[in-house]
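Running this now, will post back.
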Amino acid sequence: MKLLSIHSDFIEFEARKKAIKSAEEIDEKKGRMEECLTVFIAVEKNDEADQDNSVDLASKEIRKNLDQIKTSKIMLYPYAHLSPNLSKPDVAVSVMKKLQAKLKKDDPKLVVSRAPFGWYKSFNISCKGHPLSELSSQIGPILSRNVEEEKASASVNAGKTGKSSNLEEAEEPVSQALKDEAKLKSHWYIMDTNSKLVPVKEFNFSNHKKLKQFSFYETEKDRTSVVEPAHIALMKKLELVDYEPASDSGNFRYYPKGRLVKKLLEEYVTDKVIAYGGLEVETPIMYDMKHPTLERYLNKFPARQYQITSDKRNFFLRFAACFGQFLIAHDAVISYKQLPLRLYEMTRYSFRREQSGELSGIRRLRAFTMPDVHALCADMDQALEEYKVRLDLILDVLKGLDLTMEDFEIGLRITKDFYEKNKGLVEHIIKKIGKPILVEMWDERKFYFVLKYEFNFIDSVNKAAALSIDQVDVENGERYDMKFTDKNNKQKHPIVLHCSPSGAIERVIYALLEKAAEKIKRGEAPSLPLWLSPAQIRVIPVANDKHLDFSIKLAEELTQKGIRVDVDDNENTLGKKIRNAGTEWVPYVLVIGDNEMSGKELKVRVRGEQDQKTFSKDLLVKEIKDKTAGFPFKPLALPMLLSKRPIFSSFK
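Update: finished.
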């Protein structure tokens, strides 16, 4: 059994519909408890043999937590997402009921409530936020790490349905790098803005709340998702992205608006990399498992692979663009005069078989679009100078995405000997970033790189996701036998830099939605950057019979100026049309009535601003074009008239 205990200001839930046929019958679908210990529970297969023992152990663990936080109210909440190794539903219900009864029996003063099992439920929870407010436990015999990993893919629907998997425990290939990562001894520090290393336990986090959250997330290495992050509801509500039940978990469907946003982001990052000097290529998505070079590399990269069989050969789906780009470089004739050589690809797609408990919306997924640019450098001196150039590239890319340094915490991973020899580079990085960063230092090198940094976004549930990244690779130049001719006409292997200037495109969307969710919490109007907004202007006729034709003509004129404009021609009240535009985060809303038809001025509602503004048509165009200058443009992804659009998402 797995438990996650959260000391809560409150938890409230509503059972929406049955997830399994054997769901508990309930009279009341809503529940709320305040000032309580919320215990999320996953009953596992290893609890089936001795339910009473598991209940006894869980009761003791919960009572111990109660003693620490001094509360007498408990909400038991079944939560299958905690484990890939779930028990049968009838066992889970039995254990939950027995646990509730035992807690009440052992201490009659306790108030113990229980959320129903087997239902799709929405819930809100507020965590106290003190050191003991979040505690996780595992009760009973612990499965080996490999067994849990092997079962992860077999339980992709367990968290949604409460059903356990009956698949056999076939061995999943796990790279040597993953095994090394599990055993790796790390020294954790915070590097302050004076480049001083302070052990994490000694650093004063009082003014660095998110850095503290990130440090805990990284040092504990817990990637599992228990509470749904805010972006999932937003991506559905905005009709951008949704789960695809017919595919493997971690693979998503993109509706027209979402595909538009994704396409614009892909083009934006590509334009930035081309301007930096990237040479764009395209490479296969699958490679031979037994290719001698690739087989060695697989064991140096900490990722789980998808595998397929074709013509009696085993292939893996790529998890980065490294393979294809390195094989291209191996076959190329390269002179030192052409270095650094920058090879670039926007991979559609890369694949990683993340464990099911780690999957959470588009924060962590199994198929993703990754801009990947490698630089082949003549020697370490050139590599480190190029590393600085690429940091500037990353900062420039993020700025255009409306993501600032305040949105990120930086993790830097480095070997001890490389740090001692290259303190100046690390000092350059910290100076550019301008805030303390988390440093993981290794006594020895287990991977192919000696230095890596990541820009990590901390989301609404205090989980971190890496976006921009760059690495100094000291192995793969030789491993792939990439060569260049130096000025003495000798063949040498390059140092290789691995960079994703934005991180996965899906994660950029995730970060933008999570940032918007923060605005909502502050009572502000959420929005996307103007250049990414699916509709930049919404034209609303006051009365369709009088004002619709003029509204359509105006929208067509504005569209010809390179602006995405739509028209709400639905038969709704004016108030509802305006509210719908707000719900869709439309940046500019024009209401067209008699005055607008007869005059040259337009009354404009600008998102995030209290008062309406008055624009001429030309001035409105100029404002939008000025704000979107330098960014790619694509036309509307849907018909201009709202009445012509299907409804893609059932989320309301």
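The chain has three domains: 2-172, 188-284+321-515, 530-644. More later if anyone needs it.
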